[in-house]
Queue: 2 jobs
Job 1
Amino acid sequence: MDKFTVLTGVAAPLNIANIDTDKIIPARFLKTIKRTGLGKNLFANMRYAEDGAEKPEFVLNQPKYRHAEILVAGENFGCGSSREHAPWALLDFGIRCVIAPSFADIFHGNCFKNGILPVVLPADVCEQLLADAELGTNARLSVDLARQMVVRPDGQEIHFEVDAFRKHCLLNGLDDIGLTLAHVAAIDTYETNEPAWKPVIAGV
Amino acid sequence: MPAARTLFDKLWDAHVVERLPDGTCVLYIDRHLVHEVTSPQAFEGLRLAGRKVRRVDATIAVVDHNIPTEGRRSGINEPESLLQIATLEKNVADFGVPYIPVLDERQGIVHVMGPEQGISLPGMTIVCGDSHTSTHGAMGALAFGIGTSEVEHVLATQTLLQKPALNMLVRVDGVLPAGATAKDIILAVIGEIGTAGGNGHVIEYAGEAISALDMAGRMTVCNMSIEAGARAGLIAPDDVTFDYIKGRPYAPKADDFAKAVAYWRTLPTDAGAHYDKTVVLDAAKIIPQVSWGTNPEAVMPITGVVPNPAAAPDAAKRDQMQRMLDYMGLTPGQKLAGTKIDVVFIGSCTNSRIEDLRAAAAVAVGKHVAHGVRALVVPGSGLVKRQAEAEGLDVIFTNAGFEWREPGCSMCLGMNPDKLTPGQRCASTSNRNFEGRQGPGGRTHLLSPAMAAAAAVTGMLTDVRELV
């Protein structure tokens, strides 16, 4: 996983509540065995017409947002399925930070596993950032994870909260599995103490 | 540890391997269910790191999401689906994971298969790379969906790094009136608390109307917990649960079963335990529900009329509602009952168990699917299919003009050949009415199996209470 330290880039405004994971990446694009290549189908149903042509009104089709690295979105972003293809698609497109008033739990967790920072800020602050994002390439936002600050184009700094453990992993690009395996002795002990009646799955 | 604990607290405490200084826990996972869509990248990760599956005897794989529900005996035609299934088959062979093959009678939707085989048991932690893993909470297990990185984490370590959720109680008092079902309870709950109402919480469902449900109904309720934003739903295990489990292939046997039951009886929430949030519903007031919008909180009784965005509390809500109505092709003030439908889908991990098929067949018997309507019945597993055929339900359905299919996720999610075409309106027993969920441009109305059958035979959204 890539580290996340400071990200400065164009922010795309997507002010719609309850953007679900079927909107982020429809199920018909999940028939892949890879993590990469999903960016072209990010938001496919909103982004393309039935004949495959781009819908010019969709934000990521507008020239100024084609290289957006930050998304400012509505509440409950990422609700629905557990598909990690949603953060993979965002990442493959080039988005490494999503700012919203709230996120669905599974999507929120999946972001951290892929070097994407989800930033939760109050709705009125998100409104201001949406206004900044409307300025397109004239207004870059900066997100500093170590200092837990979003820096607006005018230099105003906005503090955000983030789980300390997840921040540590993201700042250092750490692999969760490696961290957990440091506790393997405790896992061994736990398994030795399992009740004898607990069945195993064998002979399927 | 508080003296009085909830069911969730007990399940959590029993699985903490280690508590890290910041409160993150190494949580032990008892059962890991694996399917073809969210696992290939996880196995690839194991391979790259030279890791093994830690507990193959706690893991089981099955295909469900992308397989066709007809003609599969002659092979699968779509190359991408075929590759995903072949990849799963190679992975389970390479890593020694137990696997139920495509043509095995036990094959089915992972959330139907797990309880059916006695693999999902009370007191356990159960995960799967699928958000509807919440279904298994009906057993009195802590069951939740995870992403692919966490699938890899569980395969490698049999644990997850997690912080405990908050406790939420949804109590449904009283007795359901005739015509209302478990599906109507959960749709009413989501309508009440909203799609984000359960975020950060695990919901425990309790009360007279919940205790009165059979296991299929309890699974329907827990299944849609994620639609209220809760990762997990729970129902305390009781004699209904134990009777369901007894004798299933992977359930504890003989003395072990007695020991297990003795432990399971200690799990229900203690008197006086603390819930962070409590919601109470009166079952007597729940009438058959139908969704009208593009998220599951946009739901109302079948007797209702399509709401008017002008009445929304603010501009953002008004825009959201208007967007839903435009997508759904509905007009404010229009009665929901009488809205013409094109397709009926009876199936999915929410409603494809034998009890669901019986409820639909009871409405369909002796009638015929309306002219121009396409209606699919997709059993949740090969064993559900066999049981239904033994009871003659397949004959009821096919005589009535329904298509009788092979088990799988089918038209719930538009990633196999069963899809809506743009503009088609579907009465569906599935769980999500998101834009494009059942196929690009498709319009979904969520409802119960009996209501779906009523829509099939009348060709429109119909109050099932007027038919039976």
Note: Chain A touches chain B through 58 residues (CB under 8 Å).
Job 2
Amino acid sequence: MKYLCLFILLWLSLLGCQKEEITIGTNVQETFILENKGASMNVNVFGNTGSKVFIIIVHGGPGGGSLGYRTSRSIKTMESDYAMVYWDQRLAGASQGGANGNTLTLENYVEDLDKLITVLKYRYGNDLKIFLYGHSWGGFLAPAYLAHQNNQNKIQGWIQASGAADFDSLSVWARKNLLEKANEELAAARNTKFWEEVKEFCEKNTGKLTTTQLFELNRYGHNSEEYIDEIETIISWSDILNNRNRNVPITANLITLLNPANPKFLGRLFDDLPTIDYTQIKTPLLVLHGQFDFVCPKQLGEYVYEKSAAPSKKIVLLPRSGHSPFLSKDSKLYWDEFKNFIDTHL
Amino acid sequence: MKTSLKSIFFSLLLCISVNYSLFSQQKNDYDIEFDNINIKGALVGSIFYPGVTFGLEKQIKGSLDKREKKGILHIKQIEQYLTAETYWYHHPNFHDNYYLTLNWMKRKTRENGLFFDFTSGAGYSKTFLGSVTYEVKDDVVNIKNNAGHSYFLLNIGNSIGYDFKYRQLNSWKLYFRANLIVLLPYNSFIYPRPVWEIGTMYGLKTQSANNKNSIK
């Protein structure tokens, strides 16, 4: 009986006992959660919070996770000088929630990001300099955020890395590039089985793609990287896993990524996506794009660069990279350009 | 919290050591008894995150499976239980999960005291988020206390254990169980999670199987 009482006391003492800990320092590792519309989103802050320069990782997917972007090189290059904010979006990474699939709308994503910025300022001070770093799907969400109301005023600069930018153009260019590459590889008789499949898909599916076709195109884009010699990936998944927060629930990350209901939710999300007017975005811009990116083709990076009204903008095409240049031999160039951009726009 | 866990751990160790100290008092007549109600307590690990569990097992059916092999009678005790168990595990920065399960369990105990369980059931899970949680309304940031989610829970598990009543006069058991729990709907899907437990059970109420001296 004594031990039962002890257990009950232990149980009760733990309820709601999360302490707010805010650290201003050079080597910070802390986690908080942002709750909005049925989603409890994990936010990990790593690095130098004393710098007051915060870089929010707007990860890909939708449904990916943020901590996959934390590699040894990004830690070495960025975290000693700035605070990196790894935000798991709704239904992604270690985010938790119940039956919240219907909340997957662009409006909610934009609202989440805005609330995250409000919380960061609440925690670390109103004088923060905030940069957005959008990769893949995050390269659609970040500009969608900037194009909304007066959000540009809250952001110091924007890094568009292999961004999805415009979904209609994405599918057109991805098909075009894949088809050209398939013809080139078939002419050289390299990996003919795979490239014939790609060619057949691209020739057969023309016009506006359904969500299922878009996923298929996306899969071919990713898989093509295994067959393109020019792409040199050097960072292993073990590097990424080692650099995750020790307590990250890996199973939760996998489950959200593999959620079979994703096509249903994403189909609805993609159907409602607007076309972003990049000519209205004046936030300083750095475009980083892999030369051999067949998931979000390099033309998207060039398109954003050309359309952007930013007085200060730069584009860097990375010659040995596919969709994830931060995992390739270009990663040093990638992070050096990234850091230069931040330093220039403080 | 560390002190409390330590206390629980030591109490379990104490229970185990009491059992061992009584080993010398072996019974001679193998009087088989059914445990009508067991109370259990165990340390829990979900992957490698710690927790505890307590529960009750109520026997709903019990029988003896007698088989003769080479002139020797072998008896297996087969029981069915309804169990109610409460669990807690602590996954830092993610969540604390408190859950209650109601299960049906089948236990087979060999004449050497070794037993095997199969458990399946359902329950209710309440998680409390593992980090400070904020919500923002009209640009005002508030800390949300007791933030978390409720889930329906499914449970399936297998155990192996040893029943000390086959060697002595008390009703202690030691066991190890591997469970798979599934929370749902979790982000409109499911969230499976392995949970193992190692602990002890005590038979509060026993009933004779009336087969005294049936084993030689």
Note: The first helix of chain B runs from residue 2 to 21.
